[in-house]
Amino acid sequence: KYNPNGDQQWVSRYDGPANNVDYPKSLFVIPSGEIYVGGWSFGTTSYTDMIVLKYSPSGSRIWEARYNDPSNDYDYLEGMIVDQWGNAYISGTTNGSLKNNYATIKYNAAGELQWVAYYANQTSTADEVIAMAMDNLGNIFVTGAEYDSLDYSDIITIKYRQTTFISGSVFFDENNNGVKDITDPPLAGWKVRISGTKRDSVTTNINGQYSFADIPFGNYTLSQAVNPGWVQTLPFGGGTYLVNISFGNLTAVHNFGNYSTTAISYTVDAKWNMLSLPLRTTDRSKTTIFGSANSAAFTFDNGYIMHDTLTYLRGYWLKFPSTHQVWLAGSTFTADSIDLKTGWNMIGCTSNPFPVKLLITNPTNIITSPVYGFKNGYVISDTLKPSKGYWVKVSQVGKLIMRQGTTVSKHNVVAEDVINKSNKLFVTDNEGNSSILYFGSFADASFDVGFFSAPPRPPADVFDVRFDGESYMFNHNIKKENKINISTLAYPIKITWELLNNEKYELLNSSKKLLTKIEQISGSILLEDKNQTVLYLKHTNSTEKPETPLIYALSQNYPNPFNPKTIIKYQLPFSSYTTLKIYDVLGREVATLVDEIQDAGYKSVEFDVSSVTGELSSGVYFYRLVAGNFSDIKKLLILK
Hints:
Largest sheet: 5 strands, mixed
Strand content: over 45%
Number of strands: 52
Oligomer: single chain
Distance between the termini: 104 Å
Radius of gyration: 37 Å
């Protein structure tokens, strides 16, 4: 070192561990007066290594950092940049397997390796670094030559991006201590803002996390929008964070804590939900109440319409990325009313569960449908729940009133009576979405199939099942056959039935070919064909000519429980080697009912407990059908 007058101040000498050639290539002095020297040096067990030496202003060596490529061959430093915080960036040429590569490396101010980035063109014979530079965002540029046998050399320039970000989380400070405890739940859908060189805002995800990426260097103010009914506890007093993003501070992490004495959590499901506003609050905007939704809020008025401000007792469709808790703060309410239009209406609930049978309308008795909720498919609801949305159909304009009373609505009695007298078809897809269809013989002239008309179809890509004519009810006294429309992306689907009487039905595919007979008190089939979006349910009788089934199926035994005899039915679409055996709960075979090649068709076999060698005790047993590549197993119960 020389002073401005040319007087020598100090000399620092470096001799590498191999006592061989040591060669400098670059020199940097940062504002603190510390000196960085970059070059290459022979190692004791390697050839040349890239090397960075850091000296104090007085010339004392603080540290050295050597980089030896895994190939343990020649490594030459060609360029170096040191930022004002002492981070050193070097780039050079490493001799990899059979050729040279670019290597760009970062060391922090303590000489610790942060990262290594390689560039190698597999079609070239060698890559050689010539120079490097850095812009004011911390992006690193490396340029050099690439040699190949076709056109000698090309100039190759590479950009490496150093990510800058501000991140953190927003949480419910349940014990109001201004500290993020491990048990504090996240607050999803809250808005966080930055202002300064860049202005932006984001909402927290389902884990309460937020992040601003690619932040330009500069000073920022970080704040949150505190939702109504909450008080900020971190930083204390509703304060903000002052953040500097620079070479020395590429990232920053800050959390926001919030407390409320009236906060209540509600669960929303992944994908689409029917929801309503469960608490009184001063801000009823969708972004405040359901800020974690990734859709607008849609209600219904002869078609779906988007609403930015939510109304009490009104229902809305909203879509969410995954299942999580939504925390709301406000005051509860137990009574309210809402206007209804003729036809279908989306309604909500008060802050407390409300029995459907206590719903009041003005004029009275204008409800002409069950009340439908949504949980992986439309379902008839007997109780309205806070935060959930529902469908109801009315015969004329009126008002729906929710207040505690003793009046039992006529529509609820009708719904319960018909459902209890109906056969049921359960349709479930591979994601667990499910709907129930009702069918049977309803000779009562006062019964109106229209009472079980289906609500408007859900938004696109939502599971839905209904009979043709937009209904959940099929009365075979009116027609013998009805089409079933299925909307799902998750196959296979399972169809299960429950019969209450001796009526007989057939389930047909879209070409009206037989899939299975529905004759036993219960049974099921699995449909794997994604093109099976239309089925037919047909009422038949025992005199009709049997058809060859299209699929294998095993029915539930009947009667069940039984003693001593029961009937097991199954169907074979092809001639197959078939076995039907009985097993106990330990998997031991106790009886063989079928063990032979059988023709295609509908089969029935009797299982008589008294014919089994050795006494079978009361309890659960299993019967298993194996035919071709098909196998199914079901339970049966012996009662003595």
